[in-house]
């Protein structure tokens, strides 16, 4: 089992003190090694928080959480650090130093398995440019190997961040909205590459997506989150249009207070 959460609640350390709500509330979830799971839900639902919790970045305020059979928050800091090397968290906006060459940025994905001295040496002369080239080629970015990161487009930067994941040796890929800067054709190609890599090494893939169609069309298991809670956790064949509509229903009222607005997953008002 990759991850087990039982009644997990998470509160952001930077949340306002008077704000007593939780970013995740009473979340229970089990994810097997090698499973591929899509997280969907409206903005602010808690998808990123859940991914960060799985990556051992946020300690739960209550509940039980284990990753690969151990409890990260009961471990020593150094042990937890070692555990994190098995988890690759790909944020929506990858933290790539702007003046760095793409090759160096991609090879940062190897740092958890490299020695200190090899890591330092690779900053001066990339120690495995071939691996970076191969990873970039899977996203059609091989010609950017020696480009500077700040000369990449948003979509290229996003795929450069994902190429890091390919060179890592992680056992779980935790990927936050990997397609937000990509056009539809590139989105499908990028998602396919991620899924193929996860399947080839039996890595667990948990991926948050705003593209509900892509989630339903490509992932065997769908978890719907809203207001920090799991609304449904089902095989894709069991996810109905009504479940999706309820997940994204926006019950806010306009200024007159009498016009309930419903939003589709793409944020288009379907009521008017
Ligand atoms: N650093 C933070 N400090 C305080 N509250 C936060 C922080 N990050 C997120 N939150 C709050 O936690 C809740 C869940 O946010 P989260 O980013 O996990 O949602 P999300 O589903 O990933 O949203 P989106 O689809 O917009 O990225 C929201 O209410 C958000 O305002």
TrEMBL record:
Keywords: ATP-binding, Cell membrane, Membrane, Nucleotide-binding, Translocase, Transport. GO terms for molecular function: ATP binding; ATP hydrolysis activity. It comes from the Bacteria. It holds the Pfam family ABC_tran. Signal peptide: none annotated. SUPFAM superfamilies: P-loop containing nucleoside triphosphate hydrolases. Residues 5-252 form the ABC transporter domain. The keyword Aminoacyl-tRNA synthetase does not apply. SMART domains: AAA. This is Phosphonates import ATP-binding protein PhnC 1.
């Amino acid at each position: 089992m990759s991850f087990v959460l039982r009644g997990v609640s998470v509160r952001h350390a930077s949340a306002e003190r008077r704000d007593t709500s939780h970013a995740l509330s009473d979340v229970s979830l089990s994810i097997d090694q090698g499973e591929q799971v899509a997280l969907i839900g409206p903005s602010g639902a808690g998808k990123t928080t859940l991914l960060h919790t799985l990556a051992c970045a946020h300690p739960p305020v209550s509940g039980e959480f284990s990753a690969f059979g151990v409890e990260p928050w009961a471990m020593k800091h150094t042990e937890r650090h070692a555990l994190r090397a098995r988890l690759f968290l790909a944020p929506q906006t990858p933290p790539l130093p702007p003046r760095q060459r793409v090759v160096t940025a991609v090879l940062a994905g190897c740092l958890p398995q490299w020695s200190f001295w090899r890591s330092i040496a690779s900053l001066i002369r990339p120690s495995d440019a071939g691996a970076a080239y191969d990873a970039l080629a899977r996203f059609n970015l091989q010609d950017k190997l020696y480009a500077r990161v700040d000369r990449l487009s948003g979509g290229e930067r996003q795929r450069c961040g994902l190429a890091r994941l390919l060179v890592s040796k992680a056992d779980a890929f935790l990927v936050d909205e990997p397609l937000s800067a990509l056009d539809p054709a590139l989105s499908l190609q990028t998602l396919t590459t991620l899924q193929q890599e996860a399947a080839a090494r039996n890595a667990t893939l948990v991926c948050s997506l705003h593209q509900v169609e892509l989630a339903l069309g490509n992932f065997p298991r769908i978890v719907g989150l809203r207001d920090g809670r799991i609304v449904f956790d089902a095989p894709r064949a069991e996810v109905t249009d009504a479940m999706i509509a309820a997940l994204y229903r926006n019950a806010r009222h306009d200024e007159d207070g009498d016009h309930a607005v419903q939003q589709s997953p793409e944020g288009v008002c379907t009521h008017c």
